[in-house]
Amino acid sequence: MSEWYEEICVKKMSDTIYRITNPTGEHMFLILGESRAALIDTGAGYGDLWKAIRSVTDLPVTLYNTHVHPDHVGGNGFFREAWIPEHDRELIANATSWKGRVGFMKIALSDWREEFEAIPHVEVPDDFIWHGLKDGDRIDLGGVVLRAIETPGHTKGSMCFLHESEKILFVGDLLGRKTTLLARGGTSVTVFLETLRNLQEMLPEINELYNSHNEGIVPKEVVWNLLSLCIDILNGKDDKIPILFNHHPGYMAKRMKNALEREDGKFGNLSYDPEKI
Ligand SMILES: [Zn+2]
Ligand SMILES: [Zn+2]
Asked: Shortest CA distance to 27 belongs to which of 37, 17, 15, 36?
């Protein structure tokens, strides 16, 4: 019997897309081309990531990160280098520190206990190489192309990756049941609104939105729902429910009926800093 912190799940989503889920719940995506594969994010760094990857493919794998938070780059130490959003560089030190990772684990694991600090995990070494990604960068895996799209909001640099032939957009933490602008590096509501307007224009050419937490997929309507929340916030018409996100005070825009669902039944909520409208 393996321990809970060793359990990595692999799910085939299509011929070229596999979803890898960490024991702490974060989703990563492995995209296969003819000559190489891309891994999107590495989770918090628990479990044997290479065993999961090698159960799918023997291709060389290049690592890309949607943004630089501990639950997305925590496992980067399984690699020697990664491509990250250029504008998230200032987040590297915190995201790779043990303090940053414990901060995430306290949010992810409601039963967090100090002894969890002793759980085996991978460290990101000091000589790790961080390459910068910029908007529009094209990632050719051989027959499969991913396009990097800068989408500031959850962090200043946040990138989405568009799988051009399957029309899947990998959104990281940009869109979810509880999108937050309160985490380290988050932007103002106004900047996020601009990103959502750009995404809205792209939506007709996108089949599915895959994200990094909970179900790993969000309905397209989340873009409109978050967009209208941003407009409500800017007009002072949201519910303004006080919350603390990893010690950072802010507001949840709409009242929740439980940990994941809005009271009004619409998909997607937004937390933000009232000082950064
Ligand atoms: Zn994040
Ligand atoms: Zn995350």
From this structure: 17
pTM above threshold 0.90: yes
pLDDT-flagged residues of the chain (< 50): none
Ligand nearest to the CA of 67: 1
Go through the chain and tell me how many residues it has: 277
Cα 1 to ligand 1 centre (Å): 31
CATH of domain 4-178+203-219: 3.60.15.10
- How far, in Å, from the CA of 34 to the mean position of ligand 1? 30
What tokens were used for 128? Answer: 């790790």
Q: Which residues pair with 84 in a beta bridge?
A: 132
Q: Where are the domains of the chain?
A: 4-178+203-219
Distance (Å, rounded) from C-alpha 96 to C-alpha 78? 13
Cβ neighbours around 221 below 10 Å, total: 12
pLDDT tens by residue, 124-136: 999 999 999 999 9
Give me the phi and psi of 215, to 5 degrees please.
-70, -15
What gap in Å lies between CA 227 and CA 238, rounded to an integer?
12
d(CA 32, CA 29): 10
Ligand 1 centroid, distance to 60 Cα (angstroms): 26
Supply φ then ψ for residue 210, to 5 degrees. -105, 130
